[in-house]
Amino acid sequence: MGDTELAAKQKRYALGALIATCVTALVVNANTSAVAILIPAISEDTGMSTDTLQWAVTGYSLVGAAVIVTSGSLGDVFGRRLIFLGGTILFVLSCVLIALAQTGEMVIAGRCIQGAAGATILACGMSLLSAANTGKEQMRAVTLWGAASAIGAAAGPLVGGLLASTLGWQGLFWIDAAIAAACIPITLLAVAESNDPSRPKSIDFAGTVLIALILAPLIFALTNGSTWGWASIQTLGCLAVTVLATIGFVLVERRVTAPLLDLALLRNKVLVGATLSILLGSGTVNAIMYIVSLYFQDPNTLGMDSFQAGLATLPVAAAAVVLAPLITPIVGRIGARTTIALGFIIMSVSFAALAFVQASWTYALFVLPLVGVAAGMSLQNGPCSSISTSCVEPREVGAASGISNMARYVGAAVMTAIVASVYSSVNASQLAGGAEAGEALAQAFSWSSISMGIWCVLGIALAALVARHVVQKPNELDYANAAASTSHTIPTPVPSQRA
């Protein structure tokens, strides 16, 4: 094969990888952000309470947290295209399962499967892009992939709400299945296979299972603790399982050849601070937007339909997308630590403003605080995303990015469980005390905002830890990835990008 023919083939593979990964990233992120808007419609159709259907959101994130690193490892060992293709097929099947679901249990099961599929697509997609491009083309591909992810995250609630109000909530999943299925032949015909021959062949499946065993009982306890009683046998039993699973996870990770989490990295204070900041920032945004979707659509409050609620989230998504490309110059002017602290301060103030919600509030009064939450998240999440991969040695970048990716999923799962518990318990308490339905929900929203605001105040303290001892400044590729961090899980560079 001549040089010209080889160059043409590589160009075709690069284009194929770009199309397949960008389209699937857009669909996965749109699907992820849209589901919260659909919860009231799914509840009405299946008869399952919104409290229980919260697992359609937290279950997705829980499974994603468990498999995001493992799926990347599987790609490195068995072939990134093969695992990416498997994730895409699984995503299509999960969409069909959810669209055909007659019960809430089927929806939740489908969403848990979808969490594994989405995490696999995002993890292996970035690796495929990295392998198919070099130099400036790699930067361009990463930027386009990030833009597709951000557009999907921003458009998801609007598209999901529109479909729910016209075709029914199942429409989103049928369309997502069709778009993802169209990427399968593209992946087969125009994406080159790649792997990492230097990586150990062992896969840490035990660590994957233990991550799920840590998170699932914890979320059960957080969700049901107010009903069971925080000192009840059920709650304490769930927390005990989480503690035991955590101990087991540490013991396993110390012994396996290729651990899911390199425990030695936890001695890196900058990485730990950046990771916790990502968890808090991404988690609180996901959590409050879940409550917003319920509050805006409740007939006792704003009484929006699904489309109106999706449209109402546009200013929030727009704030994150518009601010993303401005993060790099802001960091260059005031520094990473100050930018992160400023982001958490803005989030804390915005949550404090939402704490004053009254039943008489109109939509207009929600806009500015919610935009502030999104803008603050972008300010802190962007620098933390770039710092998390620049504060470690090049050979550790893959492991560090895995920790960051897992943190986004864990944050979304845990914070949504916390805020759902607060919202449900305060509402029930207010109603039991004789409050009107609208007033009870307003109080529930208020306390939900306060609970998220407390975590953001802790994030301000974390900013003192992040970027204090950064030796290597983030490079352009780090910032390109960080600019895409408007959705809850945007993978960062793999080791070959920083060698």
Describe the structure.
It contains 18 helices and no strands. It has 499 residues and is mostly helical.
Annotation keywords:
mainly alpha, 499 residues, single chain
Question: How many beta-strand segments?
Answer: 0
Q: Which class of secondary structure composition applies to the elements? A: mainly alpha
Mean pLDDT across all amino acids: 86
Tally of helical runs: 18
Q: Report strand %.
A: under 5%
- Write down the Rg: 22 Å
H/E order of the elements? HHHHHHHHHHHHHHHHHH
Task: Catalogue the unreliable spans.
Answer: 482-499
Largest sheet: none
- Principal-axes shape call: globular
Q: Layout of SSEs?
A:
Elements: H1 3-46, H2 50-53, H3 55-78, H4 80-99, H5 104-132, H6 135-166, H7 170-190, H8 205-228, H9 233-255, H10 269-297, H11 306-312, H12 314-323, H13 327-334, H14 336-354, H15 363-390, H16 397-432, H17 437-462, H18 476-482
Short account of what is shown:
The chain is an all-alpha fold and 499 residues long. The chain has 18 helices and no strands. α3 (55-78) runs parallel beside α5 (104-132) and α4 (80-99) packs antiparallel against α7.
